[in-house]
Every structure is written in structure tokens, then in C-alpha cells.
Amino acid sequence: MNDARHSTAVLSEAERHRLLAEVNTTQFAYPKDRCVHQLVELQAKRTPDALAVAFQDQCLTYHELNSRANRLACHLRALGVGPEVLVGICVERSPEMIVGILGILKAGGAYLPLDPSYPTERLAFMLHDAAVPVLLTQQRLAGRLPRQRAETIHLDSLCWKGTAPERDDPPAAHMTSKNLAYVIYTSGSTGAPKGVQIEHQGLLNLVFWHRRAFAVTSMDRATQLASPGFDAAVWEVWPYLTAGASLHIPDDETRASPERLRDWLAAQAITMCFLPTPLAERALSLSWPRDLALRMLLTGGDQLRVYPSQSLPFVVVNNYGPTENSVVTTSCTVPPREQAATLPPI
User: Fold this and answer.
1) Each residue of 70-105: pLDDT tens digit?
2) Confidence at residue 66, expressed as pLDDT on a 0 to 100 scale
3) In degrees rounded to 5, what are phi and psi of residue 109?
4) For the chain, which end, N or C, has fewer CB atoms within 10 Å of the first or last residue's CB respectively?
5) For the CA atoms of 254, 296, 228, 261, what is the dihedral angle to 10 degrees?
């Protein structure tokens, strides 16, 4: 640290100001008056027949995703959901999860993701602490949920092709980018779960930085692997759906095995993938085919302890950020290096 301070001392005041100004010039224009669900709606109008979400044999086009989310949003509005109203969603990773969180935002509300694998005591605490009036879940998860007073909606029992005419327009919900988008519970410095509230403006900043930094286009095929209760899941969804790319969800057995996951990524022609640090380290130790569609492997959540091999056919990017800062605060491309004296930086 002393050497760094001494090195800047040789610079003049003008030179220091110029250097700091150049390094910190990171601003770029993006639509700050929109909310993410409105950007997905625009994409659905542009490419209604494009693939939005895929999981095993379940596929939703952008039109189908948008229409189902509109139907759900209308139902939620009738239950009183609107700006600053928090809606819980305890759903396994699936197209229903994507419909659920999009529908909540379309209703004007904010979503609270609840991982079905969490202990019942933790789910009970979060539901009580957040005091959600409505909870979205699935019938098969009913036995795992604690008793609570919220109005419960089973997404897997809703009829998406009923006799009621489909709405191509979302329900009216007067909101701005300063309204709440989601709440993620972390352990907190005291060890007790702590709800972190993120507004749409923070999410928009993340979305447009990600799309610009990684050159995301509608041709990308991205993964959704993270637990719903981990803020990385936010990062896996919105930058891609707002860009017209497709989300691909592996089953739990596939995502738990680095070898099976590697083969699945190749078979699905995935171009962008996020892996939590422990899984990424195991995946980086594998042999990978040279003809992969995968162009970028993103990781984060812990200190990365390995460097990628020189032979890997994709770029590795290490990311870090507290939940309070909308998922990502620092991002660094990890250079290929077989041996290193220091760990890759966060």
C-alpha cells in the first residue's frame, strides 16, 4: 500500500485529476425511465415467436411468456398487488418461476424469491418478516411450506388457455424506476436473515451494464442455474430476457455434476453461462471440446482459487458484489495461466 501511495505522489495535481477522471468515466446512456418488465414486453412485440424459456420438454415463446405473465398480473392486481407490495414466490427453477416473477413485476409489485430447499424455519422467518400478502408456489411444494397467512396461488394449477380472452396489454400499474423490484434475504452481519430491497433503477443499471459489457444479443442462449434465493439468479434472467435471448434451465442432477453440465452446455449450444465459484472451479478442471458455442463463463460468489487453462475455448470472467449493490460491483476477465503466485482478483 505504501508503494502505491508513493507512486502517485510523483504525479502533479492535474495529472492525478486527469487519471482519476479517465479511470472513472464509466457512464453510458440507457433508458432509466423504464422498468425491466416493460423492456420484456417490448421484446415480446418485436419477436413474439422467438424462444424465451426452455426446460426439458417445456418451451415458452416470448408471446407465450408475456401473455401468461399478463394473466397472472391481472389476477394479482385483483388481489391488491401494486407498487411497493411484496409478493413471495416459492417455486422450483422452471418456466413457471419466470412467468411468476415477470407477472409480479407487471402487476406493479416486487418479488421475494424463496428457495424451496431452504429449511422450514428459514422460510417461516422470511414470510413473517416480509409480511407478504400473496404467495406464489406449486402444488408439489405444499408440504414443504410453513403455515402462513398469505393468499396462496399454485402456478402449476392455473389454466393458461382458459375461455377468457388473452390480454396483449399488461394491467395498469402506475410505477417508476424508483419503485421496489425485488427483495433478497442474506444472512446479514449478525447471522440473522436480512431482507435487502432493490429498486428497478438498480436492476436497470445491472441489466444494461451486463448487456454492454458482454455484448449480449438476441442470438445468445443463456443458462439459469442459481438458486432462486441467490441474487445471481436475478442476473441470470433479466439481462437476457430484455435483450431477446433465450433462457435454458438444466435439471438439478445436471447442474450438480460438472461433467454432465459440460455435456449439457455443449448439447444445448449455450453461449453464456454463470456458475457459482465452487462449481466453476470444478468445471475449469475438466477437458472441454473445442467446438463449443459457449463464449463466456461467468462466475462469482466467492474467491476464485484457480486460473483457467490456456486450452479453454471460452473466456472466464470473475465477478463480485454484495446484494445491496444490485448483484455485481466488480468484474474482471481472468487471463489463462497454468500456475500463478496469487489468486485471481475479485
Assistant:
1) 999 999 999 999 999 999 999 999 999 999 999 999
2) 96
3) -85, -175
4) N
5) 0
Contact partners, residue 229, CB within 8 Å, separation at least 6: 113, 114, 115, 118, 184, 185
Q: How far is CA 311 from CA 91, 106, 269, in A?
A: 38, 44, 19
Helix axis angle, 36-46 relative to 200-213, nearest 10°?
Answer: 50
Measured CA to CA, the distance from residue 59 to residue 220 in angstroms comes to 16
- For residues 296 and 273, is the Cβ–Cβ distance under 8 A? yes
Identify the residue whose cell numbers are 388473452. Answer: 166
pLDDT-wise least confident of 15-24, 42-51, 127-136, 298-307: 15-24
Q: Which residues pair with 334 in a beta bridge?
A: 316
Query: What is the C-alpha to C-alpha distance for residues 203 and 47, in angstroms, rounded to an integer?
Result: 23
Provide DSSP, 148-186.
--SEEEEGGG--TT-SSPPPSSPPP----TTSEEEEEEE
Q: What is the DSSP letter of 35?
A: -
pLDDT-based confidence at 33, cuts 50/70/90? confident
Helix H or strand E encompassing 319: strand 315-320
DSSP helix/strand/coil, 1: coil
- Which one has a higher pLDDT value, 110 or 162? 110
Q: Side chain identity at 138, as an amino acid letter?
A: Q
